[in-house]
Amino acid sequence: MVLKELLKEWRIWMLITALMGALVAIGPHYIEAEDGTTRLDTNIIQGLDLAGGARILIEPDLSDVPYEERQSTIEQTIRILRTRVDAYGLEDMTIRQVNSLTADQEFIQMEMAGATTEELKNVIDSEGVFKASLSMEAEHGDIILLGGSEFELEGRNESIVLGNTEIMVGEEKEVEGSEYSVPVEFVNLTEEGNYNLRLVAYKGEDITGVDITPSRSGVGREQNGNFPFQFQVSIDRSAAERFRDLAQNFEAGGVAPGDETTYLQGTQLVLILDNNVVSSLNVGSVFRDRVVTEPSISGGEPTREEAKEQMNALKSVLESGALPVPISISSTDTVSAVLGEEFMRVALTAIFFAVIGVGLLIFIRYNTPKVALPIIITGFSEVFIMIGIFADGSHLFETARGMSIIFLVIGVPTIIGLITGFKQSDFTVLMLPVVSLFLIGMIRFSTGLDLAAIAGIISAVGTGVDDQIIITDERTRERIKSLKKRVKRAFFIIFTSAASTIGAMIPVMTIGAGAVRGFAITTIIGVIVGISVTRPAYATALDILDV
Questions:
Q1: Fewer Cβ neighbours under 10 Å: the N or C end of the chain?
Q2: 79-89, pLDDT tens digit by residue?
Q3: Alpha helix (H) ranges present in 68-226?
Q4: Shared-domain flag, residues 478 and 538
Q5: Residue 47 forms part of a structural domain
């Protein structure tokens, strides 16, 4: 009977929706371990503190940088470090800007679960060896122009010969022309028996500047379904002359889809960083006709954000030599995987006993399970919902089956909750779709669970208990005035308390670094989840239980 009454309340359906969304995000499932046994696993992303790994705090020397240029310099440094990280194949590394508590010092924090401090230092110390090469697919007997001379390509089984230079598969060698030498890389032999070559056009030292002036750089308005971007780079004149000479190996006239510009046929400019291909660009026919010392790099992406991201990535590749300012390592932290597992076990145990302990104290205080049980249930619900924030359910958005699951577990309870709310003429039910959108975002975007986040979850649970006690006291004190007015007064106190907590955490979140910032963010999210989901559900449960 009580359950039937509970399911008539939209606030209970809001709690159910949140719990189901967290369950889908966490995604408990069985996996096969290395020893052949099966064990339960989840989608929870364990941060550095729990999975083990390394963290480095870097301080860039901004003493000679004008104040108005400091932020852009830090962003440029982060982009270059990110490019180096990608070249090393360290995809899960986090690089972000943090500030000191007094906001007078800027730092860059690099961390990665499962990494060592030596790996992070290698990324920092690497100079980022960059080169840009013109790709070419050649046949035996083809004539190739290099350094002012013509060379007839002699193809062999595992090598090619240009003049007196033999180049093996996967090897790069200098081919001496009459005027200068050109590095040539023999990439591989195609299935058709042709030879994939790369003629090195530019090296890192040939890029003398990347223009970020708004009038010559940026993302334009949408055209043909894409947002175009463009920026200019400055090339050393001798390198630009070499590029023109190499361009003579290709005919003009190729046209890209949806573009009126003519391009060199049979080639692309391949951008290579630390021996890894990071991008390939079409080459305008103009490079065959004249020396271009300030070429434009352009492209297009489906969204403005993607276009800006791609433009910045290309800039980083072209700037991937030395960092714009000197840097020093302020601190390093290493957490072993064994210690991380122990942290996880202790932290989850602490959360469990915190909720149970609070429930027992409430039972002693009010001497009735009608109050203690709802507090324990909503306490665990709040913890479960919060943990869902740190689980990666993004894979569900990649398939029709996954999208169907999201609709069933979030869309259906939301619809039922809306129907029950409108039946009661309670238009505050319109906050339910807002909560549902938050849950969908929670499933799609996630971050790692660490000790700071766990501390924030425990803090949010403690704040929630305070609010629940206020609600209970307002309901159980002598019936002087209407119950509705007392509950409204309780929620006024709760919202005021929540606002003050959030207000106190925002400065910590914006200027704090590392664990302090993570704690502040988790506390704010916990407070929002509490006042929008678990507190209303708790008050509704007390109504039905007639406490």
A1: N
A2: 777 766 765 55
A3: 70-88, 117-125
A4: yes
A5: no
